[in-house]
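User: Predict structure, ligand S-adenosylmethionine.
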Amino acid sequence: MGDGDHLAALLDEQAAFYRAVAPEYDDHALPLPGGGELVEALDAFRPAGSVLELACGPGTWTSQLLRHATELTAVDASAEMLGIAAAKVGPRRVRFVLADLFDWRPDRRYDVVFFGFWLSHVPAERFASFWSLVADCLQPDGRVFFVDDGYRTDEELIEGERSPVIQRRLTDGTAYRILKVPHSPADLERQLDRIGWRIKVHPTAGPFYWGSGNRPEQAA
Ligand SMILES: C[S@@+](CC[C@H](N)C(=O)[O-])C[C@H]1O[C@@H](n2cnc3c(N)ncnc32)[C@H](O)[C@@H]1O
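Assistant: Predicted complex:
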């Protein structure tokens, strides 16, 4: 099996994990400080206008986005997650799209692109192409906002600390390999700068961070 096949198999296993964990997703939330700062930062950012939420999961952020957005499209690869999100937000202004973000193309552009706890699951090999997708989703004066963490327990590090591959378990013990890239806010900011984004990444009191900014070339 080549490297490409290996990565594709990992991304499939990661998507399968999230399909399986959907009903118990909220039980796995990190009981760590700093989460409240993310909520406040997103409200201060004011994600108004047309908003695209990537990897929306069970709608963790969808209702908060709807406090500001006039319309919202939410994409995820798990029908189970989308079902929970739809039940949570009710019949409101949301278009849910079932799609794999590694081959999905947008059918329009948005004022804001948001993703919560998704970037750390994007492998280094797909980092630039993911951000190029984000650029293709944004209006010329569009803005991006994301929240995430780099938290990995010793038990999860089945390939060692230097590997992005970790193991996560369902409550029944079933194990899956997923990717969890432990970005540091400062490195992430530099990496984004190198590919044309002006994004400030802010650490919180706990393991979380949030980032917001734009791509000046987008507006040129
Ligand atoms: C860590 S969860 C984040 C969910 C939500 N945004 C939150 O903050 O709680 C990651 C989400 O990515 C989705 N996902 C995994 N692989 C994907 C892929 N290839 N394309 C689209 N979504 C994917 C999962 O189904 C899951 O809902």
